[in-house]
């Protein structure tokens, strides 16, 4: 096998698979992608894994190897190829590999996601055939100190989680919110009730962009000021709706939303796709236009959600409440916003120091 084996990733019948002349040699990949779809994985996750595995299979084709020939040594070579990849641009101009002065190649997050996709593929093969070799090494997880006495409902936390031994060190970055001036400029630039409602749900209810686009008309209770949100993994939660945002959404429904058979809340307002659900690309185009218009370069949809999380932390909202409002699976994700709330951290620090001084003086 030479080149990329004629492999492509394509969507057929609502699910992703590999196609092209070389696809029969990688049938296991399509079976794995079908397995992910059967387990109700997010279509975006399945799509990302499809392209990650496409990259891996193309690399294997270039090396003259098939999936049965993959060993730990082959995986180490694949990891090295990702790290050494030269900076390349797609035809559209989007960078999919980087040079940061130290490492030339893919971003650590991209490399780890690809390695996770490959690891999942071979775990799936081993699930079907326990005798099959596992080329991705597993690392041992040390137990946390003092965890030996944890029993009962928290006993499961004692168990060390098996992780992949093939991972790249990934820098931990804090979420980036917008300051008051940036919020005023960006939101003030929006002209339609629809766009103001979308921004309001992200900024004052903390919704993700995919959650906003997935809302149905029936998910909004304007009178009761509640929103029923379907988050990651099809997990539902109810989020309070700001009174002003509720008024904006009501105005959109009464005066601006075109007549359509679509049940989605936010739809395209004009053009050949009028009345159809607003797409992620359409939402990105809206924010891209207003970023350019206002000069708020950080004004991405997710930055509004980060701004909401930061506001909760600055107000001293309990972490469990923050976790519920933001739809995080783990409280540690909500805790990251505390680092973005220096005023709250300073207040807690000053209070702790006052208690410490009082004890010392006493």
List keywords for this structure.
362 residues; DNA polymerase, domain 1; 2 domains; two-stranded antiparallel ribbon
Structure description:
The chain is 47% helix and 8% strand. It has helices at 27-38, 43-62, 72-84, 108-128, 180-189, 193-205, 209-213, 243-256, 280-294, 301-314, 319-326, 331-335, 342-361, and strands spanning 8-12, 15-19, 98-99, 104-105, 138-139, 163-164, 220-221, 226-230, 236-240. Strands 7-8-9 form a 3-stranded antiparallel beta sheet, with no helix packed on it. Strands 1-2 form a two-stranded antiparallel sheet. A two-stranded antiparallel sheet has the order 3-4. Helix 1 packs antiparallel against helix 2.
Helix content: 40-55%
CATH superfamily of the largest domain: Intergrase catalytic core
Write down the overall geometry. globular
- Count of beta strands: 9
Q: In angstroms, what is the radius of gyration?
A: 24 Å
Sheet-strand content, in percent, reads 5-15%
**Topology-level CATH name of the largest domain:** hpI Integrase, Chain A
Largest sheet: 3 strands, antiparallel
N-to-C order of helices and strands:
EEHHHEEHEEHHHEEEHHHHHH
Structural class: mainly alpha
Q: What topology, given as strand order, has the largest sheet?
A: 7-8-9
State the CATH architecture of the largest domain: Orthogonal Bundle
CATH class of the largest domain: Mainly Alpha
Poorly predicted residue ranges: 86-104, 142-161
């Amino acid at each position: 096998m030479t080149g990329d084996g004629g492999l492509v990733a394509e969507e057929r019948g609502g699910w992703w698979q590999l196609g092209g002349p070389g696809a029969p040699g990688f049938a296991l990949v399509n079976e794995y992608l079908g397995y992910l779809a059967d387990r109700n994985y997010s279509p975006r996750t399945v799509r990302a894994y499809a392209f990650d595995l496409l990259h891996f299979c193309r690399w294997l084709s270039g090396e003259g190897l098939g999936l049965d020939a993959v060993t730990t040594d082959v995986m180490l070579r694949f990891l090295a190829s990702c790290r050494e990849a030269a900076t390349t641009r797609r035809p559209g101009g989007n960078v999919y590999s980087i040079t940061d002065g130290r490492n030339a190649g893919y971003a650590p997050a991209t490399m780890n996601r690809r390695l996770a996709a490959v690891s999942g593929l071979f775990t799936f093969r081993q699930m079907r055939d326990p005798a099959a070799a596992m080329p991705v090494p597993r690392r041992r997880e040390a137990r946390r100190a003092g965890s030996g006495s944890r029993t009962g409902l928290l006993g499961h936390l004692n168990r060390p989680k098996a992780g992949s031994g093939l991972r790249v060190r990934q820098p931990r970055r804090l979420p980036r919110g917008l300051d008051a001036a940036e919020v005023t400029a960006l939101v003030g630039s929006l002209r339609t009730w629809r766009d103001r409602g979308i921004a309001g749900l992200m900024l004052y209810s903390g919704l993700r962009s995919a959650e906003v686009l997935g809302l149905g008309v029936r998910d909004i209770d304007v009178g009761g000021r509640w929103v029923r949100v379907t988050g990651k993994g099809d997990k539902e939660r109810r989020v309070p709706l700001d009174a002003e945002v509720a008024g904006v959404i009501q105005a959109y429904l009464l005066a601006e939303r075109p007549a359509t058979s679509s049940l989605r809340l936010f739809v395209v307002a004009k053009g050949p796709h009028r009345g159809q659900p607003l797409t992620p690309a359409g939402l990105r185009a809206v924010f891209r236009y207003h970023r350019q218009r206002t000069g708020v370069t950080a004004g991405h949809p997710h930055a509004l959600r980060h701004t909401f999380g930061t506001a909760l932390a600055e107000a001293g909202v309990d972490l469990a409440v923050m976790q519920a409002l933001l739809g995080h699976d783990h409280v540690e994700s909500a805790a990251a916003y505390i680092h973005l709330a220096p005023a709250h951290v300073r207040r807690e620090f000053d209070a702790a120091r006052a208690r410490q001084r009082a004890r010392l003086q006493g």
